[in-house]
Amino acid sequence: MLDLVDGHFRIVGKVSRVLNEPSKSISLLRNTPLDFIHSSILEEMRQKFQLVNFSGQVNVPEIQLDIPAPVIQVIPIAIFA
Predict the structure, then answer these.
(1) Is the distance from CB of 46 to CB of 63 less than 8 angstroms?
(2) CA dihedral defined by 5, 20, 66, 62, rounded to 10 degrees?
(3) Hey, CA dihedral for 14, 20, 26, 31, is it positive or negative?
(4) What's this model's pTM, rounded to 2 decimal places?
(5) Deepest in the core among 4, 43, 59, 69, taking most CB within 10 A?
(6) Contacts with 75 (C-beta within 8 Å, 6 or more apart), sequence order
(7) What gap in Å lies between CA 11 and CA 77, rounded to an integer?
């Protein structure tokens, strides 16, 4: 697993979507249990995490729930280290 984080690797995959329109994005929560939670609740959760981060007790990275266009979505088939 460390090779994937720190190493050089190649991925063989299939392009499943190409989005060029600026108004569209790919959700990182797609096909997960969190995908069924309403966006207002997710935004409230994000704000709560930011409050914890501002307190200085826990370092919480910025949470990104979607990737704006232009973007290519690839389904990985194989990973070679």
Answers:
(1) yes
(2) 70
(3) negative
(4) 0.60
(5) 69
(6) 13, 14, 16
(7) 7
d(CA 16, CA 18): 7
**What type of residue sits at position 80?**
F
Instruction: Give the β-pairing of 10-19 and 66-68.
Output: unpaired
pLDDT, tens digit, 9 for 90 and up, residues 17-68 = 999 998 888 888 888 888 888 888 888 888 888 887 777 777 777 878 889 9
DSSP-assigned beta bridge partners for residue 71: 19
Residue 51 CA, distance from chain mean position: 21
Structure tokens at 10: 């190649």
